[in-house]
Specification:
With 226 residues, the chain is mostly helical. It is built from 14 helices and no strands. Helix 9 packs antiparallel against helix 10 and helix 12 packs across helix 13. The chain starts with a helix and ends with a helix.
């Protein structure tokens, strides 16, 4: 396995040189002090690392890209995870498939929170539904929805969030039905968003589902937002 000391050192220097203690305090508070930040706004950080990420994307073979993504993502400060995600965005569509799901999920379970799950849910969804075998992809989703880690459940719920007319309503309803009375804030939000987006595609189907199921008032409140 390649050691990425140089790449990590370059990014660390960039982050330290552009850190702002006031931004750091606000960012850490925003994520309930669960994670450490250097203190750099996304709008400032992205231009600072863009050329590096593009260079690594163009020059590194896929196996090394995957290793570099992992090493960046496993670093302590949140800026590294965001940078890793931006690096992944440059090449995952052309290079990852269903068989990469276990690899990717194992990495993103590290320091997982809503800001990372909400980035990866669409990627996970695209990779799962790229498998033409319905039984295999459904089995994978059921594995996620039954995971003891509720962030994995949130990802399962949100895999079709951006699918619009391609949404599999029966599958979505099957996934969320056991969780309709969950007290978990992050799952309530995920279910509400999933049903709200689905309702925009087929209002009658979602309304009928709500009518015949014991959907919590908190979820209904999320559905009716905006």
């Amino acid at each position: 396995m390649k050691i990425f000391n140089e790449e990590i050192a370059i990014l660390t220097t960039i982050f330290i040189n552009n850190a702002d203690i006031n931004v750091k305090s606000k960012q850490e508070k925003f994520l309930v002090n669960n994670f450490q930040f250097y203190g750099i706004l996304t709008s400032k950080r992205k231009p600072l690392v863009k050329s590096l990420l593009n260079k690594w994307n163009k020059t590194l073979p896929l196996a090394i890209k995957k290793e570099l993504f992992r090493e960046l993502y496993l670093q302590k400060n949140r800026e590294f995870q965001y940078t890793a995600m931006e690096f992944l965005s440059l090449w995952w569509k052309q290079n990852l498939n269903f068989n990469d799901l276990d690899w990717l999920l194992l990495i993103i379970k590290h320091n997982i929170w809503w800001d990372t799950t909400d980035y990866f849910d669409n990627i996970i969804g695209v990779l799962i539904f790229s498998n033409s075998d319905i039984s295999i992809r459904n089995q994978y989703l059921f594995k996620l929805i039954n995971d003891s880690n509720f962030w994995m459940q949130r990802i399962a719920i949100q895999t079709q969030l951006m699918f619009k007319e391609k949404t599999n309503f029966d599958l979505l309803f099957t996934l969320i039905t056991p969780l309709l009375l969950t007290p978990n804030f992050y799952l309530i939000r995920a279910i509400g968003w999933a049903l709200r987006n689905a309702k925009r595609v087929n209002e009658s189907k979602v309304n009928n589902f709500i009518k015949i199921n014991n959907v919590s008032k908190k979820i209904i409140s999320v559905i009716n937002e905006h």
